[in-house]
Every structure is written in structure tokens, then in C-alpha cells.
């Protein structure tokens, strides 16, 4: 009978068995249920027995793990059967106890299948697995039977949420296990894989049907148990395949495998030879120091032919400075010491050139003898570049150590591995107390704001700039820093950060002072009594204070941005523009100007303007300090009008006074002419003398009015000019009698009012007349001295002196002379006093 017929026969037996069970379920469902559960329990323990008995021969950890799992699965199924309420064996527990235990067993086997794949290629410790399941078994028994806290699966014959979720979870785990099985199918024999696959399918379908089962004794229960029967059968067949049949199949194929291996070994040998000749890496096999194999790549590096190399001592190819090192490394490797397999050294070429090679060596065993297999490649250019890199690194490190900025580098674990001198100064710690420390917990522990910058930089992988961040050093020194955070990336993965910083504490303090000064100036501007107005180079308003805005009836916001010319009348804009050009040339000025208010009224202001320039002397605007002088301007205009009116009145008065003085002078001269006519009528000497004296007195008054008529000043008379004209007038009257008289004049620059001048003129007229008439009879060298001196505090001395015969009296109050009486009266009008001295002539002093 062939294999195909045997399989058909087995299938018929299985179907017949299932049909019998279905028939049994119609007659006695309890017996049907008990029989199927018992079959599953027997299969579970059979799996354990098969796995345990075959473990010594096949050492299959996967199979052994499943055996232990099925042992406990079968145990819980056994408890499930005996806890059924129909049997009455376990009483006093919830009615759904049997179903609780069934869920537990299904959960254990589904989870175990998922875990079992771990042990396909991994050895298992049977005791640990068994003890683990035992502990789990004990815990579950305590939860279910002792503490009775296992959730209910049915309430009033309706499934609970726990039952639904648990059933769904079992289905998901089973599906995942099935997918893992499919992925690992190459590990199993084909037939075993099929049995396992069908087992998973039947189990998953049974659980799906169970998921939709509403009642504990649902009509779907028949199908569930039939599916579990098929599941148990497939599991048994799969385990039997793995434990019993597979070892013999392996034994049959062992010889074939060896032949395949030998063939592959030969192919590998050919491939090895071809590869060794094609690669650019030199390959050397040596025993002790004798070369037994070299490839063409070594010939190219060192210049010797392969035949020459196989006859040479390996150490002869090594540069003397590295020869002892290479020898010791080779001996240590042969002794089995743990030494690096990769190292660099210098070799000597056939042309005596020195080259660097990078060598990788290991000990190999061929025919029970030790050889050293070494591969190497020329790194001369790389070494040269490396030396240059080292020089550059040293150069850059020198720069980094001497720049003012601090530089710190930490890795992806936040551990600092570089810090320069500048950063030591900033952190205020020596280098050995910074390197190896955690940047956050050890250095930036008290710097929340700076830490947030670091974390953001790590998240976004971008360079971040910060400025003015407060930095408290570990020594509690407060500074302000600016700098950069530069993430270090490798293959787009974060590897660390470069942290650069510059101490700007002094700058921040100066900026704070500047801000404070600006605030103070702003307060001064805002509270200033004067208006402050700033315009830009386009004459637009950029700043005004409240005083300025109030002057024009605007708010400060309304004025900002408006042109200066918006506040100037149209007819004044041209002159204002010319004034700005003029101010630009002289840099600053003070001027009056009229501005237009919001309500179309006008105010006068006095403006002190200063032009504003930037550091390159470019004009950027102007600053004006404005004071409202409208009231003053109105007063000035009123005063100007008053002055003009006064000037008009004064002009009228002056004209009137001139006309009056002119008329008085003319009238006085008319009187003098009338007197002359009368004098001619009376030809006696007495009458003539009287008339001449009257004319002389009237003439002295007429001279004053003539002066006033010709003068611009109608209130004061220059006494010097007046006296000199008066002397000439009196002298001309007595010319023929006084030709030998010399008159000396000493007069200060004095201005007298009209009353004082007339009084002084009449006094001088009387005194000169007396001197000319009576003082110089029979006297030669006649001298008359006239002085007019300005004493202190508006006090004057008027002195007339001659060297004649003198007066016959010493007291003017006792004289009967009309002329002297007139002098006395005139002195009294001046509120003055008179002194007479007759020693050596006549000397009269008048103080007023």
C-alpha cells in the first residue's frame, strides 16, 4: 500500500471518529463534551512525554518548551472538566468557574506558542522554565480558588466585558504566533510546518467562534470542541514529527551534506585564491618568521617578487625601529595572549623606501600547526595626511586655547570631553574639574533658561544663538553670556553639542545703565516744561513729548509720523524750508517761529535747534526744544504798537517844542532889538548901561532856547557849549573895554536841565558883566577863570574867579547891588549855596 492510500485511510478514520462524536453529542452531550476534553488532556501530556524522551537525543529546546507549556495547559483543562457544575466535584464557587479555567488554559497555550519561537535557536534551562510555569500555576490557583478575585466571564448567561476582551486578546496573540511561524518555516520540516499551521488555524477559528458565543452552553459549543479536537490532533502529529521522524531524516542526509560541504570547500579554495590575487589588500601567511604565502598586492607594495619574498625572513621587511615590536606581538599572539589584532608599522621596500602599513593578524591552525595570517594595506598617504591633520589639530587647539571665547564639547550622553581656557574662566573651575562631568547636572544645574536652549537645540538639530543669558557658575558666580549651540550630527543622528560662550557681563551692565539712562531721559522728556520735537532726515516727526503735543492741541500719537510742514501755515512753508537749510549749514540755532495748532489757531514758539548726525556724519534729523512765547509775542506786538504811538506823540511833542523854542528865541531877539531901539532913543550913559544889561540877560536866555531848538534833546543842555557861547556873547558886548582880559575855561562834560542851565547862564552873565565893568581898572594881565566841575552824586561846583580889585562885600545877603541880588535869587533856585572870597581878586563858588 502506497503512502497516498495510507493518508486517505487515516483521513477516513479521522472523519469517522468525528462523525461518531457528533452522533454521540445528540444522544449524550455531557459524555461528548467529557470525551473531547479528555482527549485534549491526553494529547497535552503526550506532548510533554514525547518532548522529554526525545530531548536527550535531539536537544530540541523549542520542543521541550512546548512540552512544559502543554503539561500546564492540560492541567488547567483537567481542572476545567472537574469544576463543571454537572459533576458536583468542586462546589461553592461561581457557576462560570469552569469557563474561567478554560480561558486561563487557552491564554497560557497561546502565549506559550508566541514565546516558544525564542527557543528555536537558543538553548533552554528546563528547570527555570518548569519552575516559572509552576509559580505561575500556583499564583493562578490562589487567585481563582483562594482569593476568588478572578473576574467573572458570564453574568446572567451573558458574556462580561472581561470575557470579550480576553478572548480577543487570545485571538490576537494566536494570529501573531501564526505569522511568526510562517516567517520561521524554513526551520521546520515541511510536513511539521503544515501540521503546526493547521493547528494554529483550527485554534484561531475555535477562539473566533468562542468570541461570538453568547451563552455558556451555546449551540456553537459543538463546533468549538470539534475544532479543538482537530487542533489537538494536528499538535500531536507535529510534535511526533519533530521528536521521532526528523532525527532519522537528518541522518539520511548527513552524507549528502558532507559531499556538498567538500564540494563547496573546493570551490571556496579556488575562490580564495582568485580573491587573494585580485584584492588590493596584501595577504601574508607565515610560520614563525618564514613566509609561506603572499599575494600580488604585497608585491606591489614592497617591490619584491613572490619568489623572492618566500625565501626572505619576514622581519627583514620591517623597519628597524618597529622590528622588535612586530616580533613581540607575533610571539605574544602565538602564546595566546589577548593583544590587539590590528596595528601599524613601517616596512622597507626593495628600493629602500619607507612605507606605513596597517596590519590585521590572527593565529590560524593548519594541519595541527600554528600559522599567522596577516592582511595589510599601504597607509603611507593616510599617515602623511594624518600627520598634517595632527599638525592642523594642534594649530586649531592652540587657537582655541588662546581665544577669548569659551568652547566646550559634550557627547550625546551629556558628558563633557573638551573645554578650552576661555570656558574654564567662564565656568570658574579648573579643567580637571570640568572634563568628564555631566553638562546639565554638574555645570548647568542652576541655569534653567540656558538648559532650555540646550534641549531645544538637541530637538531641532539646528544651530541656536543666545545672548544675555544669566549664567550661575558652580561656584555661584553670576555672569551674562552670549554664544552658540552647535549640534554634532553623524548620519543624521545626534552625537553631541559644541557650546561656545562669551562673557558679556560688562556689556549687559552697560546696556542696563544705558536703558536706565534712556528711561531717565524719557522721564525728563515726558515731564519737561519745554516742548521736545525730533524729526528725521525727511522732516517727519519721530518723537514729541506731551508738552509739545499739548501746545498744538494734539496727542503724541497723532503727531508721530506727520511732516513738520503739516504744522506750518502755507505762506510760511517756503521760509521754514530756507530756515532748515540755513540750520543744516550752521548745525544749530535759536529762532522764533509761528506754528499752526489742531484747531487752526496759532502759537509763537522760540526754537533751539540741534542737527543730528550719525557716526559717519550723515544727517539723520534734528532735535528742537520749543518754548511757547505766544503771550510774550502778543505783549511785544502791543508794546511795539505803543512804542510806535509814543514815537508819533514824541515826534509831535518835539516838533511842538522846536517850534516853541524857535518862537521864544525869536521873541527874545525881538525884545532885544526893541531894547536897542529904546537905547538909541535915550542917549545918556545911564540909560545905555541899563539897556545893555537887560539885553545881556535876555541874550543869555535866548542862547539856551537857540540851543534847544537846534538840539535833538529838549530836556538837557550841554553846559560846556552853552557857557562858551555865553562867554563869547558877553565878551562881544564889552569887547573894546576888555581886550587885555584873558578868559580861562575848565568845564567837565555835564548835562543840565533847562531850569538849571538858565539859572547858571544868568549867574555867569551877571558875574562876567561885573568883572568886565569893575574888576580891571588900571590892572594889566587881567584873567577871568571859569570852572564847572562834576562832584560826586550829582553835585556840581560852578566857580567864577578874576584877579581884579574884588567886591567890596563879603556877604551877598547884605548887598544892595541888583546884579548880586539876582545871583543870590538864582542860587536859591538851584538849591545851592554861594561862597565869596575877595583875596587877590574876586572868587565866587556856587555849590548845587
Quick overview of this protein structure:
This protein has about 850 residues and is of the alpha+beta class.
Name the overall outline: elongated
**Residue share in helix:** 55-70%
Spatial gap, N to C terminus: 180 Å
So, CATH architecture of the largest domain?
Up-down Bundle
Q: Which structural category do the helix and sheet elements fall into?
A: alpha+beta
> What's the CATH first level of the largest domain?
Mainly Alpha
Count helical runs.
24
| Radius of gyration using CA atoms only | 69 Å
Q: Got a strand count? A: 24
Count of all domains: 6
User: In percent, how much strand structure appears in the residues?
Assistant: 15-25%
Q: Walk across the major sheet and give the strand order.
A: 4-3-7-6-5
The pLDDT mean sits at 78
CATH fold label of the largest domain: Rhopdopsin 7-helix transmembrane proteins
Uncertain segments: 247-258
Largest sheet data:
5 strands, antiparallel
Amino acid at each position: 500500500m502506497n503512502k497516498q492510500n495510507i493518508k486517505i485511510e487515516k483521513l477516513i478514520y479521522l472523519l469517522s471518529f468525528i462523525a461518531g462524536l457528533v452522533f454521540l453529542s445528540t444522544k449524550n452531550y455531557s459524555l461528548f463534551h467529557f470525551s473531547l476534553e479528555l482527549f485534549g488532556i491526553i494529547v497535552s501530556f503526550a506532548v510533554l512525554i514525547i518532548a522529554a524522551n526525545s530531548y536527550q537525543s535531539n536537544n530540541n529546546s523549542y520542543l521541550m518548551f512546548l512540552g512544559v507549556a502543554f503539561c500546564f495547559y492540560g492541567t488547567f483543562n483537567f481542572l476545567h472538566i472537574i469544576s463543571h457544575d454537572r459533576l458536583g466535584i468542586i462546589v461553592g464557587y461561581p457557576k462560570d468557574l469552569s469557563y474561567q479555567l478554560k480561558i486561563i488554559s487557552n491564554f497560557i497555550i497561546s502565549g506559550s506558542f508566541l514565546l516558544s519561537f525564542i527557543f528555536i535557536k537558543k538553548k533552554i534551562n528546563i528547570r527555570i522554565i518548569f519552575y516559572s510555569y509552576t509559580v505561575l500555576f500556583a499564583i493562578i490557583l490562589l487567585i481563582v480558588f483562594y482569593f476568588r478575585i478572578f473576574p467573572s466571564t458570564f453574568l446572567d448567561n451573558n458574556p462580561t466585558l472581561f470575557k470579550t476582551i480576553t478572548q480577543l486578546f487570545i485571538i490576537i496573540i494566536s494570529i501573531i504566533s501564526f505569522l511568526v511561524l510562517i516567517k520561521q518555516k524554513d526551520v521546520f520540516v515541511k510536513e511539521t510546518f503544515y501540521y503546526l499551521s493547521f493547528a494554529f488555524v483550527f485554534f484561531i477559528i475555535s477562539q473566533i467562534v468562542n468570541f461570538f458565543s453568547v451563552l455558556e452552553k451555546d449551540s456553537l459549543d459543538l463546533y468549538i470542541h470539534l475544532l479543538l479536537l482537530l487542533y489537538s490532533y494536528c499538535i500531536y502529529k507535529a510534535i511526533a514529527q519533530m521528536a521521532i521522524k526528523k532525527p532519522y531524516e537528518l541522518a539520511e542526509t548527513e552524507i549528502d551534506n558532507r559531499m556538498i560541504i567538500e564540494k563547496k570547500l573546493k570551490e571556496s579554495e579556488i575562490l580564495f585564491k582568485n580573491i587573494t590575487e585580485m584584492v588590493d589588500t596584501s595577504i601574508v601567511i607565515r610560520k614563525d618568521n618564514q613566509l609561506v604565502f603572499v599575494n600580488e598586492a604585497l608585491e606591489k607594495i614592497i617591490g619584491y617578487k613572490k619568489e623572492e619574498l618566500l625565501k626572505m625572513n619576514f622581519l627583514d621587511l620591517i623597519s628597524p625601529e618597529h622590528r622588535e615590536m612586530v616580533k613581540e606581538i607575533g610571539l605574544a599572539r602565538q602564546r595566546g595572549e589577548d593583544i590587539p589584532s590590528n596595528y601599524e608599522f613601517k616596512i622597507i621596500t626593495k628600493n629602500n623606501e619607507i612605507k606605513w602599513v596597517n596590519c590585521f593578524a590572527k593565529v590560524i591552525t593548519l594541519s595541527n600547526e600554528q600559522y599567522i595570517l596577516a592582511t595589510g594595506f599601504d597607509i603611507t598617504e593616510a599617515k602623511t595626511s594624518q600627520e598634517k591633520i595632527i599638525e592642523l589639530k594642534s594649530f586649531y587647539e592652540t587657537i582655541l586655547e588662546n581665544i577669548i571665547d569659551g568652547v566646550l564639547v559634550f557627547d550625546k550622553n551629556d558628558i563633557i570631553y573638551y573645554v578650552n581656557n576661555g570656558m574654564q574662566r567662564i565656568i570658574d573651575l579648573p579643567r580637571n574639574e570640568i572634563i568628564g562631568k555631566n553638562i546639565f547636572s554638574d555645570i548647568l544645574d542652576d541655569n534653567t533658561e540656558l538648559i532650555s536652549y540646550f534641549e531645544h537645540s538637541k530637538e531641532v538639530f539646528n544651530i541656536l544663538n543666545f545672548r544675555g543669558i544669566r549664567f550661575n557658575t558652580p561656584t555661584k558666580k553670576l555672569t551674562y553670556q552670549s554664544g552658540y549651540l552647535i549640534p554634532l550630527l553623524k548620519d543624521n543622528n545626534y552625537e553631541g553639542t559644541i557650546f561656545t560662550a562669551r562673557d558679556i557681563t560688562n556689556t549687559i551692565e552697560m546696556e542696563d545703565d544705558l536703558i536706565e539712562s534712556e528711561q531717565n531721559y524719557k522721564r525728563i522728556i515726558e515731564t519737561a516744561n519745554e516742548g521736545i520735537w525730533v524729526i528725521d532726515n525727511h522732516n517727519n516727526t519721530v518723537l514729541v513729548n506731551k508738552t509739545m503735543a499739548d501746545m498744538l492741541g494734539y496727542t503724541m500719537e497723532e503727531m508721530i509720523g506727520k511732516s513738520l510742514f503739516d504744522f506750518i501755515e502755507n505762506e510760511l512753508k517756503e521760509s521754514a524750508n530756507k530756515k532748515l537749510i540755513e540750520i543744516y549749514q550752521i548745525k544749530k540755532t535759536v529762532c522764533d517761529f509761528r506754528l499752526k495748532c489742531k484747531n487752526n489757531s496759532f502759537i509763537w514758539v522760540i526754537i533751539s535747534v540741534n542737527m543730528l548726525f550719525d557716526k559717519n556724519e550723515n544727517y539723520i534729523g534734528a532735535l528742537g526744544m520749543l518754548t511757547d512765547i505766544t503771550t510774550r509775542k502778543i505783549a511785544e506786538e502791543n508794546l511795539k504798537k505803543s512804542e510806535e504811538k509814543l514815537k508819533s506823540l514824541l515826534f509831535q511833542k518835539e516838533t511842538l517844542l522846536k517850534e516853541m523854542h524857535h518862537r521864544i528865541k525869536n521873541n527874545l531877539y525881538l525884545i532885544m532889538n526893541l531894547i536897542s531901539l529904546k537905547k538909541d532913543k535915550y542917549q545918556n550913559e545911564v540909560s545905555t548901561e541899563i539897556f545893555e544889561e537887560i539885553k545881556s540877560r535876555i541874550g543869555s536866555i535866548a542862547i539856551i532856547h537857540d540851543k534847544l531848538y537846534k538840539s535833538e534833546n529838549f530836556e538837557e543842555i550841554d553846559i560846556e557849549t552853552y557857557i562858551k557861547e555865553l562867554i563869547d556873547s558877553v565878551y562881544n558886548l564889552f569887547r573894546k573895554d576888555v581886550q587885555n582880559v584873558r578868559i580861562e575855561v575848565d568845564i567837565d562834560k555835564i548835562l543840565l536841565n533847562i531850569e538849571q542851565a538858565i539859572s547858571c547862564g544868568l549867574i555867569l552873565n551877571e558875574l562876567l558883566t561885573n568883572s568886565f565893568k569893575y574888576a580891571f581898572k588900571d590892572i594889566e594881565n587881567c584873567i577871568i577863570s571859569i570852572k564847572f566841575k562834576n562832584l560826586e552824586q550829582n553835585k556840581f561846583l560852578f566857580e567864577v574867579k578874576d584877579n581884579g580889585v574884588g567886591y567890596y562885600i563879603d556877604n551877598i545877603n547884605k548887598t544892595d547891588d541888583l546884579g548880586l541880588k539876582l545871583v543870590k535869587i538864582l542860587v536859591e533856585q538851584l538849591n545851592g549855596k554861594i561862597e565869596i572870597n575877595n583875596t587877590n581878586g574876586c572868587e565866587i563858588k556856587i555849590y548845587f
